[in-house]
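Morning!

As promised:
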Amino acid sequence: MSSNPMTTAPLISGPHAHSEESVAKVMATVMVALLPATLFGFWAYGWPAIFLFTITLLSTLAGEAIGLQLAGKPQRLFLLDGSAILTGWLLALSLPPWAPWWVGVVGGLLATLIGKQIFGGIGQNLFNPAMLARVALLISFPVEMTQWVGPHPITTAAAPGFLDGLAITFSGIPNVDSVTGASILGHAKTELTRGIGLTSSLPGHYDATAFSLGTVAGSMGETSGVLLLLGGIVLLMRKVITWHIPVAMLGSVILLSAIFHHVNPERFADPLFHLMAGGMMLGAFFIATDMVTSPTGRIGQLVFGIGCGVLVWVIRTFGAFPEGVAFAVLLMNAATPLIDHYLRPRIYGRRRDGRPLELAERKES
Amino acid sequence: MKLFRFRGGVHPHGHKLLSNQQEIDVLPLPRRLYVPVQQHIGVPAQPVVVPGQKVLKGELIAAAQGTLSAAVHAPTSGTVVEIGPFTAPHPSGLPVTTIIIDSDGEDRWCDEQAHNTDPFSLTPQEISDRVAAAGIVGMGGATFPSALKLHLGHKQRVHTLIINGGECEPYLTCDDRLMRESADTVIDGVRIMVHAIGLEGASIAIEDNKPQAYAAMRSAAEPYPEIRVVRVPSLYPMGSEKQMIQFLTGIEVPAGTRSAEIGLLVHNVATAHAIHEAVRFARPLVSRVVTVSGGAVRNKRNLQVPIGTLVQELFDYCGLVENPARLIMGGPMMGQVIPHTRVPVVKGTSGIIALSQRELGEMQTMPCIRCGRCVGACPVGLMPLELMARVRAADFDGAIDYGLHDCISCGSCAYVCPSHLPLTQFFNFAKGELVTRDVEKRKNDYTRKLAADRQARLQREAEEKKRAAAERKAARAAAKAAKATEQETQA
Ligand code: SF4
Ligand code: SF4
């Protein structure tokens, strides 16, 4: 900032009024919007989920603190802006709820150190840090990252107690194979590769109501599509995000899956399945809309959302991995600078190409 | 009437109730007035009085220099005590030639009996002459000489006249009160303008947060169907000329063009009032309504203030509850910071806002989080974050490519920025820098031209010398030859 021209500017100029928004308030609103789905995750997966969530958040903060220290930036200001907590929060929601403690530690440190601080801290990162960490974990620890447990509601006898929960998080799940299984997306993919079509593989495994509510096996905070949608609506109403990215993303997934499902229901899942399975809702409202890594212009946001939607569907349908939200968002993150460069809004009094409006257009036709 | 919309915009808290509840109050006559000779865009006026000279209210004290200039009149009767540089309300805080008048307390007009003229018997030229003689400038803050605008309007076949009663800036209520209390005279001023430009009618746009003003103007305009009073939503920057045009007509003023060139003219309601006074009663613009508001002010209100009154006098009258954290002339969105209270009120001063420390708030700036709110808020369609990145890197060409010259400095982007980045300040800085560079460049070009001219002149002179020498030589030779011939013949 030594070349900051402000130091040479003579006097303060306007505006002298402000909307009183702040980075911390924006982040806090997102956290509030995440709360319903998060609490549901705590309820459904019990103490292990709560421990893993806490560990992930603390690790993310630790990574941020180390990064700030190395960069010689003020700790208090940036640790309290809420961005690191939010990153850890989102990462935790995308993890298998009973994953071991070190998954949270490695993921959290990766997210803020590699995903954010290396790029120069808040606002500078090209990729969504939570998704970067998630993908890195998935590639490095494929077993731990795909051990999904079904719901063990904390209010029921099936739930592990506090001490059992500690044991699960810190020394592994006893009788792993009896409590864990594939996610629905993984199940469908495996069956398809064995030549078993969706109409035979899904019944008994997939119930649209349970999937919408989230009482199924899956990531800590991704399963409840309905609660995530509620959170998304909160974000829209508080104007933290605009409709462009989620609508474009969900819309393109719905459109593609509807067309292909109509053509071949054996091979292609229906739209509701795509919406409610995996990280689609969390992705559309909370991940793809990450401000730092998505375009700032409205048209750019539409293109970005469509890109995310198409990629998720393609990866889920044709890719090697059963789930594609993280990959899709990361790929589109890489395209964001380009999108923002080419899809700028039209300037008042100018044509799209930047030339002044023609005389002929002056007299409104 | 069909309305359109403009892009972006913000809804700042209005703070209008602070000052719009009471009638316009008349400020007791100050003892001393400081009247700058430049209160408008264009060439400064030339003083026509000397220290020691007695003047009457409304007497010309500085004459306009050409059409892009505005005359200045004595705001009260008294004695000119000094003519010299004095702090002017300008962000640079640089002094401007100022005529200082000690009031004699009588406030006597130069023509005691104001004559009443029927403006509709005058020709357009006569009207714009009277407006010019009254020294009227755009009172919404733009301060462009109004006579020139009318004159151009008449010449350039303006087809639409818009009267701006938007007053979209927070805190300001002077136009609101003026419309409530003097709707008839404002409407009269509008009709005079319509006549002067040779139009069929005009539209007066009033934001919907001023229902009383709207009602008063509506009923005052009742007898004149050609005057439409239009209610527009309260959306900042509705009062910005280009945005208002777009909202009312759907037309965008092409980049690099003035609105008059495409047949559109926008005047402010206070200007309309001043035109009424000038044309009907030959009263020059010597006072105006000023909103005195802000958290630091005790009795927030609107005051009728003689031009040249020091801001300090307004505070003495209204009282302060605390030391103002910031003083602004105009509204808080686009107004100018004034360095201290010894700055005079000028023709374009719509308000004096003394913000308290609490209102200013604590603004911890953070890095840009690319939230895109600035992009959504910009009424021009710029990407302020990208623009800022380029200005920061001193990449002015890049900034121009991203629309620096299209930015209207409305402050909407900075208003919404959650990182509290002083976006608009960056843009104003960059624009200033470009102007300076432009001036530098023109200076350099001029110097280069002078040098080139000199070179050419020297060369020309050298050639001339050579030619002269050659001619002399030839003449000598010819003379010699002639002499020889003569001798021969004599021989
Ligand atoms: S509003 Fe501020 S933080 Fe958001 S993109 Fe614009 S400059 Fe960046
Ligand atoms: S100040 Fe300039 S860039 Fe910012 S919103 Fe206004 S016009 Fe757009």
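Chain A has one domain: 23-342.

Hope this helps with the figure draft.
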